[in-house]
Amino acid sequence: EKLVPDATTNVVCGFCSTGCGLNMHLKDGQAVSLTPSTHYPVNLGMACPKGWEALTPLGAEDRATRPMLRNQDTGELEVVSWDQAMRSFCDAFKKVQSEHGDESVAFISTGQIVAEEMAFLGALAKFGMGIKHGDGNTRQCMATSVVAYKQSFGFDAPPYTYQDFEESDVIVLVGSNLCIAHPIMWQRIERNRNNPEIVVIDPRKTETAVAGTQHYPILPKSDLVFFYGLANLLIERGWVDEDYIAQSTCNFEGFKEHVRAFDLRRVEEVAGISSDQMHKLAETIHRGERVSFWWTMGVNQSHEGVRTAQAIINLAIMTGNMGRPGTGANSITGQCNAMGSRLFSNTTNLLGGHDFANPEHRAKVAKVIGVEEEHIPTGLGWAYDQIIDGIHEGKIKGLWVLATNGVHSWIEQDRFKEAVEKLDYLVVQDMYANTETAEVADLILPAAGWAEKDGVFINSERRIGLVKKVSQAPGEALSDFNIFKLIAHYWGVGERFRKWTHPEAVFEMFGHLTMGQPCDFSGITGYRMVDDMGGIQWPCRSDQVGEVVEDNQRRLFSDGKYYHADQRAKFVYGEVTPVAEPTCDAFPYVLLTGRGSTAQWHTESRTKKSEVLRKLHPDQLYVEMHPDDARKLGVEPNSRVVVRSRRASVAAVASVTPSVSPGQLFMPMHYKEMNRLTKGSFDPYSRQPSYKYCAVTVER
Ligand code: SF4
């Protein structure tokens, strides 16, 4: 009887970027259970196992409930008051800055906190504490798409609505295991009544490849050759939309010339896809009236991810598959608020999608948020990998890590761990004090989690959705927003952030910050409007509100106009480059990595708290290998093997399966040892880590 709810309210899910609506059933204002929202336009009554179990991690017994400071004599973490924690943090960071300069402290943030908190963190760190270098774990997932869209479209603007999944007649999925990584998006495809061709381009025979209608198992990291070859074939066959190219794009002739070198023989040699298969794919795209192209981490986490994403964009714009229902060049984000981070983290761009180097943008931002312009830096800080290098080089001595677990998740994990151990002072702000990163912290700040605070997330289709406080954080844990307020006070800059009183006040600033930008949401009057409308996609200018009310599932570029000054999309392309670590006699296998199951989320800081979710995936790290390789090596199914790279050796259970081709192995990213194997290499434009390829060997 105690658990019989007396009210229900909708809250957007806090795991992946799909952004499902969850009905929170409340008793005395506290969530006691949940069900997927039937009226939310994203998920239409569906949720994946993580969504169903979303309340469980909040009630975990091992939540961080009080600040803890490492005793320098005993080496143990000890409970302290918030006052002691704040004094220690500010004293330590100021000491480092006074001895080594302002640039000697940095922060690493997340796509998991609400946008108002992201903005507060970025503003406080950069405009209040003089921290120049800060980045987010979004560098691990979306940086590539950001750069690709900016260069191709003139702004970081995923153009689609999820409705496009239901309206395409050809759906091309590249490096995306949608069935398990974004299962509700897959369900949207299942609702498609056009009997669509579902083309999956992926080296692995993933769950999605099995469920699709055509699978092209390209060789790992042959994407660029494959897509340039496909573009060349479409051009040769005359299967391009010349009117669209003439009216809405530029630089096509250069692209056409560039891809001429990618004939079908080269594609077969490099990508392993035959000429017949290429003709079949080209015909499928040509015959489709509404072709949509979708990509995610298989593209983004690559040594040439930006150019690969742009090769996909080029296919969409040259065939005129943009701006109409069921079309688009569509990047699917990873985390619940990766899109919020892209606009408001104050790292890869100035708040609201602005440019640090542009004096007019700095003046506008300063005015809106009420800080002096002189406090706004005039350039970007370092990216994640550069911050790690900076620690190794002794340039960064203090690090503040929020809601992310880099010791587990960062590429070439041992190097990250070595870096944090070199720091003078490491602060971890998180829901749990026992993540691999928290375990080596000097100070732990206990933070409230999703549904324990208010704010907005922005999902993959640009929908701003509301998160509400429907559960009380345990002990003395505070919302990240309130922790930032405390830090501003103890740092002595509380007055500079006087406008940042509560999350909705910041959300109102977002309207002014984005005014006149492609991501304009100045027409949104407040949280109430977001809630009433079931989330709102940007743009939503004040003159667009009627349109938004009428159709809350909108796509961009329906008028054929892009955000570059000439209003055209640009064909961007480049040279094919070698992977950082090719296979060799000593390390003859390519290691592929990715998501393991729908029930696991990233480093499992939260999902492993749920007994239900734990039952839905193997509890041990495993490695998929082809039966031919297993036979050659004498490896029995389910036996223990050692996978070795130039950096580490890791024990795993052999999963013998034809889902991978001979010469390839696959390991899921959720288990803590896996990234000891990966090789720290990066896309040169986005600096996104290339998780999807390194050379390993495997032994019984
Ligand atoms: Fe949450 Fe993503 Fe699952 Fe939807 S698909 S319930 S947003 S984790």
TrEMBL record:
Residues 6-62 form the 4Fe-4S Mo/W bis-MGD-type domain. Its cofactor is [4Fe-4S] cluster; Mo-bis(molybdopterin guanine dinucleotide). Keywords: 4Fe-4S, Iron, Iron-sulfur, Metal-binding, Molybdenum, Nitrate assimilation, Oxidoreductase. Pfam families: Molybdop_Fe4S4, Molybdopterin, Molydop_binding. It comes from the Bacteria. Belongs to the prokaryotic molybdopterin-containing oxidoreductase family. NasA/NapA/NarB subfamily. This is Molybdopterin oxidoreductase family protein.
